[in-house]
């Protein structure tokens, strides 16, 4: 007698309520897409830069700040 079927039953876990809701939501979204052309399915994606404006300012200051301070030192 083999224990393989018994072991495979022990490894199966029940789906949690959160997983079930996520699966149902995904199934509804996929069902809504059926039969429609791909251009109608795609939504406009909002462009967002990979780094925040604060870090862009810090980077510009580090790169150009030395030149600005040197110019101020020369004139004053």
TrEMBL record:
It comes from Letharia columbiana. It is found in: Membrane; Endoplasmic reticulum membrane. Signal peptide: none annotated. It comes from the Eukaryota. Coiled coil: none annotated. It is a single-pass membrane protein. The keyword Amino-acid biosynthesis does not apply. Keywords: Endoplasmic reticulum, Membrane, Transmembrane, Transmembrane helix. The lineage of its organism: Eukaryota, Fungi, Dikarya, Ascomycota, Pezizomycotina. It holds the Pfam family RAMP4. The keyword Membrane applies. Its main location: membrane. One of its GO terms (cellular component) is endoplasmic reticulum membrane. Interacts with target proteins during translocation into the lumen of the endoplasmic reticulum. Protects unfolded target proteins against degradation and facilitate correct glycosylation. The chain crosses the membrane at residues 54-75. This is Stress-associated endoplasmic reticulum protein.
């Amino acid at each position: 007698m083999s224990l393989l079927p018994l072991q495979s039953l022990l490894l199966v876990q029940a789906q949690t309520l959160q997983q079930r809701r996520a699966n149902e939501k995904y199934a509804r979204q996929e069902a809504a897409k059926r039969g429609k052309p791909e251009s109608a399915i795609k939504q406009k994606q909002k462009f967002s830069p990979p780094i925040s404006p604060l870090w862009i300012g810090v980077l510009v200051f580090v790169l150009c700040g030395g030149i600005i301070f040197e110019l101020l030192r020369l004139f004053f």
